[in-house]
Amino acid sequence: MKLIVGLGNPGKNYENTRHNCGFKAIDYYVTNNNLKYKNKFNSEYCEQNIENEKIILVKPNTYMNNSGDAVVKFVKYFNIDISNILIIYDDVDFEVGTFKIKANGSSGGHNGINDIINKLKSKKISRVRIGISKNKNDLVDYVLEKFSHEDNKKIDSILPKISCIIEDFAKYDINKLMEKYNSKK
Q1: Distance (Å, whole) CA 98 – CA 26
Q2: What is the pLDDT of residues 99-156, one digit of tens each?
Q3: Strands (DSSP E) along 11-117, which ranges?
Q4: Ramachandran angles phi, psi of 100, nearest 5°
Q5: On the chain, which terminus has fewer CB atoms closer than 10 Å, C or N?
Q6: What's residue 140's pLDDT?
Q7: Over 90: is that where the pLDDT of 174 sits?
Q8: Which one of 19, 24, 73, 127 is the catalytic residue?
């Protein structure tokens, strides 16, 4: 069983904001696979079977800074090993419309992944970081702003690849995913 969590903030005010890339990626997959959300542990979630592997897709409604609360509850309830978790979230260190898969490491200052690392007591959490670029002004305001039309199109253009990563995470380990999807420059 594998757990895939898209990070974001719940509510209409946060739709299409930079900080909600994880939600957007999960919604895209759910919509394109005709799945329906249910509610559990203050989260929206659904289940999918991919090549005999059960996948739990989650959007925590705990707000970004408390994302770990929901993740821990799903991990304990479904008895999911940390190596079978994939977190999808925004990252200011990459250009808009790009992404990178990472096997583990620090939070890089991202409060959502930081909360998950702290509450799972491990940095060995696989992740897909979706680029939202960096702003020279206040980072908090920046990540909570809506995408421009042009940037939204760039994010939308990578969602099919993120869906492929979700599908492949059911079949492969994180090293194979990085080898397949991380571009070599």
Answers
A1: 17
A2: 999 999 888 878 899 999 999 999 999 999 998 887 666 666 666 778 889 999 999 9
A3: 38-40, 43-50, 53-60, 85-91, 99-102
A4: -150, 140
A5: C
A6: 65
A7: yes
A8: 19
CA–CA gap between residue 62 and residue 6 (Å, rounded): 12
Distance of alpha carbon 91 from alpha carbon 80, whole angstroms: 25
H or E stretch including 100?
A: strand 99-102
Q: How far, in Å, CA of 164 to CA of 26, rounded?
A: 12
Residue 8: which of 27, 22, 26, 28 has the closest Cα? Answer: 22
Q: What does the alpha-carbon distance between residue 181 and residue 161 come to, in Å, rounded to a whole number?
A: 9
Q: Residue length, the chain?
A: 185
pTM (2 d.p.): 0.94
How many whole angstroms separate alpha carbon 23 and alpha carbon 84?
19
Q: What is the pLDDT of residue 138?
A: 63
The percent of residues in the chain predicted with pLDDT above 90, rounded, is 75
pLDDT of residue 18: 82
The CA angle 81-87-91, to the nearest 5 degrees, is 150
Q: How far is CA 103 from CA 37, 93, 134, in A?
A: 27, 17, 23
Residue 5's Cα: distance from chain center in Å?
Answer: 5
Answer whether 55's CB lies under 8 Å from 170's CB: yes
149 is catalytic: no
Highest mean pLDDT among 11-20, 34-43, 91-100: 34-43
